[in-house]
């Protein structure tokens, strides 16, 4: 019996050592080496964005709605509404430390009124009729800090950005195109414009402090 216990204990120890080497050392090391490959190291480290002096200023995966110094001369592309924003309509910077959605259904009367109010405010900001405001401009994302907006929402904002910054409309559209990603594999999802990357490109083009 003691011989059997000793044999089983020895087998268990050997399995423990082998699995520790495989799953505790070899596997994490392999994953780390893969993450160092060109094109993967940035996403593996959180897709961090850096300022010109090398200071980390955020992540391209997190969208924080920019606040213009002068709302009447707003040069920035705006993100979707956020349920964590201080603004009553969610049209301000969300709180990335409390990522959350509104969790309200389409038949919620409060949500319907909020969406209508958002549409009116955005239409006034862009100087267009409310019918031109796309759905993602008035509906919050599940995270509340999604940096992506639809090309339609970006296009709605192009004339204002061009007017305030002094850039030609075609130049602003070109910046939008540079920061638009298509469908995954050409089939999955929808094209999106990353505002977290687009606003600094606008700022660099006109010499403004970052977006």
TrEMBL record:
Transmembrane segments: 12-34
Superkingdom in the source lineage: Bacteria
Gene Ontology CC terms: plasma membrane
Keyword presence, Transferase: no
Compartments reported by the entry: Cell membrane
Principal cellular location given in the protein's record: membrane
MF (Gene Ontology): ATP binding; P-type potassium transmembrane transporter activity
Keywords per UniProt: ATP-binding, Cell membrane, Ion transport, Membrane, Nucleotide-binding, Potassium, Potassium transport, Transmembrane, Transmembrane helix, Transport
One Pfam assignment: KdpC
Topology in membrane: Single-pass membrane protein
InterPro entries assigned to the protein according to its UniProt record, in alphabetical order: KdpC
Record-stated family: Belongs to the KdpC family.
Function summary: Part of the high-affinity ATP-driven potassium transport (or Kdp) system, which catalyzes the hydrolysis of ATP coupled with the electrogenic transport of potassium into the cytoplasm. This subunit acts as a catalytic chaperone that increases the ATP-binding affinity of the ATP-hydrolyzing subunit KdpB by the formation of a transient KdpB/KdpC/ATP ternary complex.
Assembly, per entry: The system is composed of three essential subunits: KdpA, KdpB and KdpC.
Stored PANTHER family: POTASSIUM-TRANSPORTING ATPASE C CHAIN (PTHR30042), POTASSIUM-TRANSPORTING ATPASE KDPC SUBUNIT (PTHR30042:SF2)
Entry protein name: Potassium-transporting ATPase KdpC subunit
Protein species of origin: Pseudonocardia hydrocarbonoxydans
Gene: kdpC
